[in-house]
Amino acid sequence: MEQHGKAQRAGLTVVVTTMASDSHTWNLVFLQLLLEELGHRVTNLGACVPDGLLVAECRRTAPDLIVLSSVNGHGFQDGLRVIAALRACPELAGTPTVIGGKLGIAGSGDPARRCALLAAGFDGVFEEGVSVPEFRSFVGSLPATSGALL
Ligand code: B12
Q1: Which part of the chain is the B12-binding domain (predicted)?
Q2: pTM beyond cutoff 0.85
Q3: 122 close to ligand 1 (CB < 6 Angstrom)
Q4: Residue 129, domain extent
């Protein structure tokens, strides 16, 4: 039944993006569709996003979740640089931020890489393979804090 005069929160606001070196786009389309299917609102920044633009858009939209995707093999290095820039902004220091995809060139599931990314400030690392179910469960555990009201 339709409800009138009652505000209702509409899922999480999410920024989906890749990083400066990466021109792949179907990974971003996949993530956007997945998150929208789960009821969240997505701003997709697209491919080859410069660090400054990425940080500025996250500051502007104040999302509940930032999702970084990289598949070109530079994700580990790009991710370390970008998470430092995000965490250096007081308003983004606590924003849940995850990274996933193909983060290196020697396959997925390198525990040292995952530990280094978590230590650098990521809240989750979802490398290709078993990543999507884990990612869905991580997203499901997050509270919406900045979502617009319907
Ligand atoms: C199409 C393609 C391109 C196109 C991209 C066009 C476009 N508009 O996107 C073009 C030709 C531009 C390209 C360029 C290059 N590519 Co390319 N490309 C591919 C290819 C064939 C398919 C990628 C794709 O679209 N997949 C479909 C999407 C839906 O799947 P996906 O990207 O794998 O994402 C999935 C998962 O990774 C996961 N995922 C991704 N991110 C995240 C994030 C989170 C949080 C989660 C939970 C999950 C997740 O979810 C998705 C669905 O399962 C792959 C090979 C392959 N079969 O995967 C190579 C591949 C990605 N490319 C590769 C390389 C090396 C390059 C180049 C460096 C080649 C070169 N020497 O120039 C350049 C890099 C350019 C750049 N600056 O980034 C390598 C990367 C190697 C690695 N990481 O180990 C691959 C794997 C090919 C290979 N086997 O060597 N590429």
Answers
A1: 11-149
A2: yes
A3: no
A4: 75-98+109-141
